[in-house]
Amino acid sequence: MFTTCVTDFSKSALRSFPDVTVQLALRFGRRPFLFFGLATMLVVVILVTVNVASHYALKRYADDQLARLPWDFALYQTNVRSSAQVRVDLSLTPNIAAAEDVYLLRLTLPPDTVPQVDGKPLGSPFLSLLAATDPALLPPTVRPPSPNQAVLALVGPESRMSSAFQALQGARTFVLDLHGKTSFEIGLARTVRLDRSELNRWFTDRTNTPSFIPDIGVILVIPNNFDVVTGFDDLGGHVQEHGEEEEARDPGHVESGSYFPEVVHLLRMDRPAVISGWDVTGSIERLGQVQKAAQITGSEAGVPPLANSMSGLLLARIQRTAGLLDLLSTLIALPLLWVAWLFLGRLTRLLLLNERRLLGLLRLRGVPGRLIGRAMLLSIGLGSAAGAIVGLVAASVCAVLIYAGEWLPWRVLLDVEKPWLLLGFFLVGLVTALLAGRDLVRFATSASPLETSARVMTAEAEQQLARFTWWPAVAVLVGGLKVLGWALGFSLVSVTGWSELEIPDLVLNFLGLPLFVYGAASLAVLNRSLMQMTLAATPRWLAGGLKPLWLHHLSLKPHRVGGFLLIMALMASVSLYPTVMAGSFGDKAVRGAMVGLGSELGFTLNTPDVVNAELLSGPLAAQQTAISRALTPVRSRMLVQPGVQEVDFMTEYLLSSVYMPGEGYRSLPLYVIDNPTRYLAVAYHEDALGVEQSFDQIIHRLDEGQILVSPALASFWNLHPGSRLLLGSGPAGDPIRAAVAGTIRYLPGRPLQTITDRESYATSQVDYLNFLFDNSAFVLASASNAAIAPLLTAAPRLAALVKLHPGAEVGATQAALLPVLPAAPLESRLLSDEIQKVGSDMFIDLGLENMRIYLVGGLALALAGMGAVAWANYVEDRRTMALLRIRGAQPRHVSQLVITTLLAPALSGLLLGGLVALVAGTA
Known about the structure:
Blueprint: H1 2-14, H2 19-28, H3 30-68, E1 73-77, H4 83-91, E2 96-108, E3 116-117, E4 120-121, E5 126-132, E6 149-155, H5 158-167, E7 173-178, E8 182-194, H6 196-206, E9 217-221, H7 226-249, E10 258-269, H8 271-274, H9 280-300, E11 307-309, H10 310-322, H11 325-364, H12 369-404, H13 410-416, H14 419-436, H15 438-446, H16 449-452, H17 458-463, H18 470-488, H19 492-496, H20 502-526, H21 528-535, H22 540-543, H23 547-555, H24 558-597, E12 601-606, H25 607-610, H26 620-639, E13 644-655, E14 668-673, H27 676-682, H28 695-700, E15 707-709, H29 711-717, E16 724-729, E17 735-743, H30 763-774, E18 779-782, E19 794-804, H31 810-817, E20 827-830, H32 831-839, H33 842-886, H34 891-922
Parallel strand pairs: 5-9, 6-8, 14-18, 15-17
Antiparallel strand pairs: 1-10, 1-11, 2-5, 2-10, 3-4, 3-7, 6-9, 7-8, 12-19, 12-20, 13-14, 13-19, 15-18, 16-17
């Protein structure tokens, strides 16, 4: 079918050329036309497919990020009473699938108004109410366990909240009376400690709407009860009125009460109807229309037109990234284009061997070389153009149907397959073919009749004398440095500090591997002794009794054997490298998740739910003893559950005397483990987590009565091994200091609310999250450390790390452990969830998707190239084979020699390419 199409195309196109050139092209240029057309078609098909695959990877990533994004818009309102009706109106807006509300009502109480808990006063500068129409919008730590009870959350440093936290354990009633004008009363389920950054991190993760949380205060977290919310709103309104009256009476009075209500309407669209990952630009336009309609609905109810579009931010960032796809598609295809270039070079050699005698006859008949060269160039050019056109059409149609599963609208299709990009692919294929065919045209133009009719061409004889030139040497050096940089973690920019080298370094990331393989293979080919040793590795039983003779024959023509070896090496490296790298991606994602979680399964517990609140006061040693006694039977019960291999606990204490910039009143965590050896046996860790020493070595320093600190803490306080850090005070007010053993970059298993998505955040939100993570400060100590034993502190949370037997099912083990725990955990964390969070990255998705193109495209090009080389070798050596048959060689001997011709360089190329791919992929 392809031959018929391109032949018809050639006949119509040739009419515009001189008759003699046309006749020569039609008679003697058919094979160049066909071969170069097929080769160019493969090149263009690969380019087009990589481009479509890149957009498909972008589409998959957009879908994945949107799936992680529970809400699309957030509208803010201050009128609490009308918020319920506004939510109903918003849910009826076209293309709005769901609407929920989060209430955060912040109240500053006047000095003469003090809340009562079980009849006892509770002094706090701020009182807030937190509620949500969907309980899943609230952090598990403070989620009300029953519909009639609230959770009392204390926000503030340990020095301000420790005694209140202990005293309020078991409290059952919260009452606030405003001078008899109005009162607010609700039952309490429990009292917990809460960090403001943790609460903001939760809302940023789940709703993308961080809110102002006071540094010190009390938060009442209530169930979904609009009457309770409006009751608190009435109280806040009276406080506000009272404050305004006081301000009017005494303008200088600054201690009057104030009220700051905030209702966040969270909206989720009908995403399939609005958003398509194939059409990011159109999706942004449709999303803007839905957002405008929601704002109009809200404004009709008196809601200010202020909205936060989480999905809009996500799509805008993806749209900016999509601009890089065209460049990335080209860079990703560079190694395959390199294989195609070598294939075309071998194809040129094949045509030289096949057509030289025909060209010699033409020259003997008096046809000028210039005319023959013009006809050959015409055949190559037209064949390449026809192949490129067929490749563009076929690949565009097939790739879109395969990846999209349906035909895309023309507007979307033209955005994926941009006309200027298709023109670029056409020119790349055409220019590549013309450059590769210039040797054939040059030979057809300049070769003499004597040379073309000779047994061995002069050009081929000259290649036998080739030596290792500067170009392969440069290829080995540049490619080897890049592969070494992957392994050791350096680049041109990191070594030189020149940002101008960022683009060349990016290009080398794609070209480094084929450069190194090309140079190394050229070295092996041009080194006669090395070539002899390589070819001699072919087993004698496979090569037959004529192996020495045939290997000597092959070594006399290293350029022909080298072509086969080079293509095999590049095919192996280009095909295996993505496969190895894919495993590396997956391995790094699993390792990152394991380090973050610390084990396959983890729980966070509220310490007062495990130990009697009366025992959670006084020196740290007494608290830790009580906690350890309470956890010993719990650990024993957990260890006998199916699938559980080992269990360890980590206690979180709070330090209020260690200052860190930007932390305000926030207390820094001190993590205490009972047994460092057992912790290392349970927690997944890597040596690189330790700064001065390996992680194992530095953790064992805890047994020597020393502490470990995080990099942020060490950097600010200039801590190093041997330094002493002031942690707080003892019962008599004496300062408690501990010696620092070193620094650890991260503590596996520590309680932490992870962030599942960053692409959808605005720049300011990303900066805020980066600040939280990069400036995370903590201290680690052992329970046997006598230096911290008298430290006065509080222990709000416990972390349980569960190591499973190989092959144990995490979900089933989690279900078996939940009834064994002393109380419902504040949070359960599974390794599978953490892997999903860590492993989602657009460029990783893009790379993994294009690896399939590497495998299929690289294999197709390599097979075509190997076929061309094998055919060229056969055409050149068939006379030799005939002579061997005349001399008495059996057919099986000739078959063994053919196998040797293919197998010896193939095995050598596979070995070389495989080793390079293994090193580069794992690096």
